[in-house]
Design a protein that fits this description.
Elements (H helix, E strand, L loop, with lengths): L7 E4 L4 E5 L10 H7 L4 E5 L15 H14 L5 E6 L1 H12 L4 E7 L11 H8 L9 H8 L6 H8 L2 E4 L2 E4 L3 H6 L1 H4 L14 E6 L7 H10 L3 E6 L6 H4 L1 H13 L1
Helix pairs in contact: 2-3, 5-6
C-alpha cells in the first residue's frame, strides 16, 4: 500500500488549517467556506484518494488515508495544524489525531462519530455503476438516468458534481469500484475500546441528521477528554452547505478560543 500524492490547494495566511471532505465529495464542496476561513488561517483543501483530482488506488481504509494526509503535511513542511473533517473525512481526522496527536492542534468533526454505521450505499453505487457513460453527453442526461436508482434529487446533484467531461467523454472523478470493494471498512471505525484523544475537539452535528445519535454522543464523550458538541438547527448531514454561516461561526469561535 503506497502513500499517494494528494491533490490540494492553499489560500490565506496564518496557522495551517486542513479541511477534509466526506465520502463521494471533494475539496470543491468546500471552496466557498474555505474562502471565508482563509481570512483567518492558511487553509489547505485536499482531495482524499479515489476522490476529486487525487490518484485512484485499490486500497481505501483509514490507515492509508491518514498516511496520505501525513505525507502531504510533510511535503508542505507543516508539523501540526488545525484539522476539520466532515463525514468520512471526520473519521480520517479522528484517526489522524489518534495515531499522530502531535500533528493536530484543534480538531473539528462535522456530523460523524467514531462508530460503525449501517448504511453501506450499495443502492447508490450500483445505480452509478449501471450508468452507461459512453451514451451520456450532459449531467442532465445522467441525472435523468440515475433517477430510478437514486430518487433523492439532492443526492443525485451532489454525486453529479463528480461527473466531468474530457474532450466530450463523460468520466467520474471518483473510483466507485474501490469504494464499493472497501465499503465495510469505510462505514466502520477501528474497534479499539481503550483510546482517548486529549486535543481540544469540537463535534458539530445537524439537528435533522441521524449520524450523531445519543448513543454516538456517549462514544464521543468516552473517547474525547476535551470535547464540545454543537448542534446546528435546521441542518442535515451536509450541514456546512445547508447552514454555512452558523457552521462557520461555530468553527471560528472554537478555533479562536
Amino acid at each position: 500500500m503506497n502513500n499517494l500524492s494528494l491533490n490540494y490547494s492553499i489560500q490565506g495566511k496564518g496557522e495551517p488549517f486542513f479541511i477534509i471532505h466526506g465520502l463521494f465529495g471533494s475539496s470543491r464542496n468546500w471552496k466557498s467556506l474555505a474562502k471565508r476561513f482563509a481570512e483567518h488561517f492558511q487553509v489547505i483543501l485536499l482531495d482524499l484518494r479515489n476522490h476529486g483530482d487525487s490518484p485512484f488506488d485499490s486500497a481505501m481504509d483509514y490507515q492509508v488515508m491518514v498516511d496520505d494526509v501525513v505525507r502531504l503535511m510533510q511535503q508542505l513542511e507543516i508539523p501540526s495544524a488545525h484539522i476539520l473533517g466532515h463525514s468520512m473525512g471526520g473519521k480520517v481526522a479522528m484517526k489522524l489525531n489518534q495515531l499522530y496527536p502531535d500533528k493536530v492542534k484543534k480538531l473539528v468533526i462535522a456530523d460523524i462519530a467514531p462508530v460503525r454505521y449501517q448504511h453501506d450505499y450499495v443502492d447508490i453505487i450500483n445505480a452509478v455503476l449501471d450508468l452507461d457513460l459512453s451514451a451520456i453527453t450532459s449531467r442532465k442526461e445522467a441525472d435523468h438516468q440515475l433517477e430510478s436508482g437514486i430518487p433523492d434529487q439532492r443526492i443525485r446533484q451532489f454525486l453529479l458534481q463528480n461527473l466531468t467531461f474530457q474532450q466530450g467523454v463523460a468520466c467520474w472523478s471518483i473510483n466507485w469500484q474501490a469504494l464499493q470493494a472497501n465499503m465495510s471498512l469505510i462505514i466502520g471505525y477501528e474497534d479499539i475500546t481503550h483510546w482517548q484523544i486529549q486535543n481540544p475537539s469540537l463535534f458539530i452535528r445537524g439537528s435533522l441528521s441521524p449520524y450523531v445519535s445519543k448513543d454516538s454522543l456517549k462514544s464521543i464523550q468516552s473517547h474525547f477528554t476535551r470535547v464540545e458538541v454543537v448542534t446546528l438547527e435546521n441542518a442535515g448531514h451536509w450541514l456546512h452547505a445547508e447552514q454555512p454561516a452558523a457552521f462557520f461561526d461555530a468553527v471560528i469561535k472554537f478555533l479562536k478560543s
